Structure formats: C-alpha cells, structure tokens
Amino acid sequence: MNLYRKWLNDFDEYWCSADPDKPSRNDIYKASDSDIINYILNEDYDLDYTDDWLVLTDEEADEQVFEQVIQMLWAFNSFFLAGETGLDEDVFKALQKEDESCNDTIRNLIDSTCGIDEFVMAASDLEGRGHFLNQYDGEEIQIELKRGPNLPTKTLYAYRMC
Q1: What global pTM score does this model have?
Q2: Number of structural domains, the chain?
Q3: Domain-embedded: residue 33
Q4: 158 in helix, strand or coil?
Q5: What burial class does residue 119 get, using C-beta atoms within 10 Å of its C-beta: 0-12 exposed, 13-18 middle, 19+ buried?
Q6: What is the DSSP string of 50-112?
Q7: 36 within domain boundaries
Q8: I need a surface site. Which of 6, 68, 73, 149 has the fewest CB within 10 A?
Q9: Cα 140–146–149 angle (5° rounding)?
Q10: Which domain holds residue 151?
C-alpha cells in the first residue's frame, strides 16, 4: 500500500469522531511531507522523526555519502583501497598505521589513480548508502509519497540515527 494512502486511511480511522477540535479530512491535504514522514516512521518504527531520522532526497543522500566517504578514507579496508586504485596493498597498510592523519595522503593517491568520484561510487555500490548514513543498523528505508493520482511520486530515503 502506498504509504501516503496508509497514512490517509489511518488518519480517517483516528479522526472520524465528531469532535470539533480535531482537524477535518481536508486538513490532511495541507499536511507537510515531514508530518506524513513523521507519522509513518513513528507508526512503523516507534521513533521521533525529527530526532532519530535523517530523511533525504536521492541527490541529498548521494551528497551526504560523498562527504562521509572522503572524511573516512583512512578507515577503508586496505584491500579495497588497493583494488580501486591499482596500488599495492602494503602502501595503504603502512599509511593506515597513522590512523586519521593519513586521510589527505590517501585522498591524493585516489585522486591520482581512479578518481574520488569513482571511488565513492564503488564504495556506495558495495556497501550501500545506509552503511555510511545510518549509524544504527546501516539500512536505507525508501519512502514514496504520492498525494494524488495525477501528482508525481516523491521518493525520499530515511536513515535511522540512533
């Protein structure tokens, strides 16, 4: 079932009383995407959207993954680094003994071999975006919002943060 439709059905069931203080069914069409997402995540995962979830568009998620990867190049498996760059694995093993301080050096090696865009894409393809953005369990939850039959579907991605 479309998640927006689920929210609409649940809204109808909950708000069907004659209480004048409750919003009307027409108010649902004024609800923001964050209101709907908050409902869905609270209903299905019992968490507060604003505190516990990172919700992004596809493009925003790709940008966030890029930022995460370039900040943690030093932590990648030396075998993966060697495979992507074509350099000897021992080079990365030696560099990684310095922990985070070798990040810029590894970035320079990546830039001069496979390129940072290709590297990030390979890492994301291998592990998935959730691995880099979801600090809880590494999952990515796809949320499809469709407000009506003639309106485009808006796809968002949620990442649990705690």
Answers
A1: 0.71
A2: 1
A3: no
A4: strand
A5: buried
A6: HHHEEEE-HHHHHHHHHHHHHH-GGGS-HHHHHHHH-S-HHHHHHHGGGGGGGHHHHHHHHHH
A7: no
A8: 149
A9: 150
A10: 48-162
Q: What confidence tens digit (pLDDT) does each residue in 22-64 have?
A: 444 444 444 556 666 666 665 555 555 455 778 888 999 999 9
Residue 30 lies in a domain: no
Q: Encode burial over 46-70: b for 16+ CB neighbours within 10 A, e otherwise.
A: ebebeebbbbbeeeebbebbbebbe
On whether residue 126 sits in a domain, the answer given is yes
Model confidence over 81-106: pLDDT tens digits?
A: 999 999 999 999 999 998 899 999 99
Residue 134 CA to residue 158 CA, distance in Å, equals 8
Counting Cβ atoms within 10 Å, is residue 159 exposed (0-12), middle (13-18) or buried (19+)? buried
